[in-house]
Amino acid sequence: MNELINGFPVLTxxxxxxxxxxxxxxxxxxxxxxxxxxxxxxxxxxxxxxxxGAIWTWSAFGFDANSPRPSVGGALGLIALxxxxxxxxCGIFAMLVEVTAYRPLRARNAPPLAFLITAIGxxxxxxxxxxxxxxxxxxxxxxxxxxxxLFSIGSWQVTPLQLTTIAVAIxxxxxxxxxxxxxxxxxxxxxxAQDANTAALMGVNKNRVILLVFLIGGLMAGVxxxxxxxxxxxxxxxxxxxxGLKAFAAAVLGGIGNLRGAALGGILLGLxxxxxxAVFGTNFRDFIGFLVLILLLMFRPTGLLGESLGRARA
Amino acid sequence: MTDVRTRWRDFRHGVxxxxxxxxxxxxIGLIVVFIVFLYALPNKGFYEYLGLPLGEYIPxxxxxxxxxxxxxxxxxxxxxxxxxxxxxGYAGLLDLGFFGFFxxxxxxxxxxxxxxxxxxTEYNWLESPWPWLVALPIAIALSLLAGVILGWxxxxxxxxxxxxxxxxxxxxIRIVAQQNDWIFNGDRGxxxxxxxxxxxxxxxxxxxxxxKPYYWLVLTVIIGMVFLIRNLVRSRVxxxxxxIREDEDAAELMGVPTYKFKIWAFAMGAGIGGxxxxxxxxxxxxxxASTFRLEQSILVLxxxxxxxxxxIGGAILGGFLVIYVPEWLRSIGDVFxxxxxxxxxxxxxxxxxxxxxxxxxxxxxxxxxIFRPQxxxxxxxxxxxxxxxxxxxxxxA
Amino acid sequence: xxxxxxxxxxLYGRIQALHGITVHVNEGEIVALIGANGAGKTTxxxxxxxxxxIASGRIRFNGVDITRMRADLRVIQxxxxxxxxxxxxxxxxxxxNLEMGAYTRKDTGNIAKDMDHVLDxxxxxxxxxxxxxGTLSGGEQQMLAVGRxxxxxxxxxxxxxxxxxxxxxxIQQIFEIITEINQRDGTTILxxxxxxxxxxxRAHRAYVLETGSIVKEGTGQxxxxxxxxxxxxxxxx
Lengths: 314, 397, 237
Fold this sequence. Notes:
By secondary structure, chain A is mainly alpha-helical.
């Protein structure tokens, strides 16, 4: 308990950082679920591909795990570039998953459980494909941002990485919220999520909206992948699994299908894990997340904010 | 393509119709022959008897891994699939953490029967290790209980929420097992788990390191379980499960105590899962925390749905395929004489079928589901429903 | 002819819901489909809008064969349906719902004007403009669904049970609006109704459906005075 009280500021900041990454990945789960009522198991592997996208981008500029740190300006530029590359890569792979694994089943009006199996299949293909491509090796992430605290207020210290992570995540979430709430395409997404048949009667091309949703989810996962790379300092073909699981839990925690819920759920999960591991030991970090989830679902069976993709009241 | 498919379908229907028309005695005879065939599967002599050239590639035999071991693995996966089929296939509850019950069964046997278990070495709760056969019913009972304890709060949740909670449950069991200073001894694990009892004529134990007797044991258990489940499904309980799966609200209105029957399904499935775990622990002789990865829960679910949810035969077929196909794929490189490695830009890449087998397996899963969304061997009624759904697809959707 | 439905059949699973329906709608008409529950009226409508695939037959619209065309592309062709059970997007505001109606339109400049026009037709919607669709009353949702369909400036407006679940006064009102849309804007309307009295008195022509087949057709007035129709659907002996 003492650890929690003494370390509260540090735990809060690291929790927010971790939570921001969960939240970005959770958005992909929640978007797809909102529109298709489908748990996209392959999303975690799309994220994994993004972590490699970033590493490849940096190595193209001659940066590997042993390179010296670039200047701050250079680092920010490299991060921005990696984000663009990883986001595009993830977006493409997310759309590939939709086109190859889900669309053919929709065309045949297959039962929901069949989608679960193709999702598992797609997940195997992506992770095992990457495993073969990278010889199952672990790859170190080049050092980018300086590690000493950027500023501190009392015992509240924030490192450049934490600040970047939280800032980028907030930026992405605000942009997504604007896109879904304010643009015509966003309206199309909400329309399909709320009533797919009526949306078609309004002239919405359902397949195009679904493709768009996968693209957006992929973009978010790509951004998260770069941030996660810098935090974890290494990546491997199976890195998506645990983060995907947590992010999915975060999406459910907030109320799956609800964008703001996914953001809230991710951040709460990140915080709960950090506070919890201070009390019960870091071994139980993953345990706590699920315990919180199960307890919450028992009292609020549809998550914190309830299910709804961009409902007007949210 | 279509022609081949129709011809295959006609052939299949022809066979099953002819089987249905047989007198009862012949039916039983055929089933007995089939069971004998299953018992003969792991013997290499059996393939020689069939006239298959040994030493070269044999289409059925897994050359890169001992056939008996593979069959035993298939066996306990089939058992798992049978258990999960009750939960997913009959009661329609999406359980993503089914392997957790397998872990409960395995760990119960391990902690009770191994002399290295902390129960005896540190805590002194018991005098001496138990025999495997005594620990087995405890293992089943504890997994059943775990099913009830987990089911009691979570079965009020709807489909997808149930999925994540069960997933979390399996993960929590793994995390508890991972604690080094706790009873399960983390990744150091528990060794010297007791084997099932029995001695050969020469006094050597039947159940030692050869996988064959374990395969025969698990096969026997599967056959017994099939009879048990068949009877259960045809009883009042089975009808209640189907009613819940089809329309839970309607079932409730008809006076079916849905919650009670859901817990029943959950607990039954959990018990079978634990049974499987106990059998496995008896063979493996060693458990540790990394044995129980979440991927395995997902593989069991894939088995049930690939085979065809709601059908015992489908669950068996699926359980067999998810282990056998990846194992068989290991040797596919030998068939075509492919190299194990290639060098690209100086770096060696392992392109052996062993390394790529789950990549292929993933592709197979997708392709099978696109062409047979109802699974390979579905429940007849369900298959018909799914065919009807297909016709109702939207224009050009 | 604006719409030609030629001998279509449709299956729900193994149950044949339509047994060769042939219907046509001329430009500028109001055509009604009437019949009992389960006669196939709504199913016919769904086949025309493309929500359901037909098993055989042809559908032509404005000279184009749309038999195998996706529902959303039919909207671009000029068919817009206000679905049965209203189908208002519950989580969108009235404004957003109306904007959804104009989803396929390229002439963004005129949308605001059309929205004004719809709000003039249904003043209640103006009062509820920023409210979520799901919080509206049944009658208001019905108005929203019709108004939303108008927002696409359809050549053919499909109205599925516009009077369902409405109070008698509102029924009168909604049919007056339907007539007004037809007469003032020249919008062709295909109407499915349980309320045969209202539908027949407003429609130029009508078809009577029974168990998936057409059993009678004629002008609205003819059918209104047809003894068999009177007996079966108008509740007057």
